[in-house]
Amino acid sequence: MRILVVCGAGASSTFVAQRVQRAAHDRGLRYSASAGTVRSLPNDLFETDIVLVGPHLGSELEWIRQDAATRGVRVVLLPEDVFTDLTGTRTLALVDEATSARESADTV
């Protein structure tokens, strides 16, 4: 699973990506997490399975979803308190939830 965390400039997304990467590693999951920006998103989508969007980018969520959908990439808007998730476990749970929802929809 390739996870991309997107924010405006890439700074806050770096912290979230590092934390979710560590949480996945601690669970024995072979996930990779990286940080990106809205500007780099069109290129980054080619190597991404799921995009975690910073809460401050809610106004751009619709076009991000549209762009990601053309490549079969899932998109999750992160909650306002995502930066307080110091272990990355709550953020990883959002990835798990989105993955499970997608797999359930694919089997229906």
TrEMBL record:
State the signal peptide span: none
The superkingdom listed in its UniProt entry is Bacteria
Residues bearing PTM Phosphocysteine: 7
Q: Which GO terms describe its biological process?
A: phosphoenolpyruvate-dependent sugar phosphotransferase system
Q: Which GO terms describe its molecular function?
A: kinase activity; protein-N(PI)-phosphohistidine-sugar phosphotransferase activity
Spell out the Pfam families in the cross-references. PTS_IIB
The PTS EIIB type-3 domain is annotated at 1-101
Keyword annotations for this protein, in alphabetical order, are: Kinase, Phosphoprotein, Phosphotransferase system, Sugar transport, Transferase, Transport
Q: Which PANTHER family match?
A: PTS SYSTEM N,N'-DIACETYLCHITOBIOSE-SPECIFIC EIIB COMPONENT
**What's the protein name?**
PTS sugar transporter
What are the top taxonomic ranks of the organism? Bacteria, Bacillati, Actinomycetota, Actinomycetes, Micrococcales
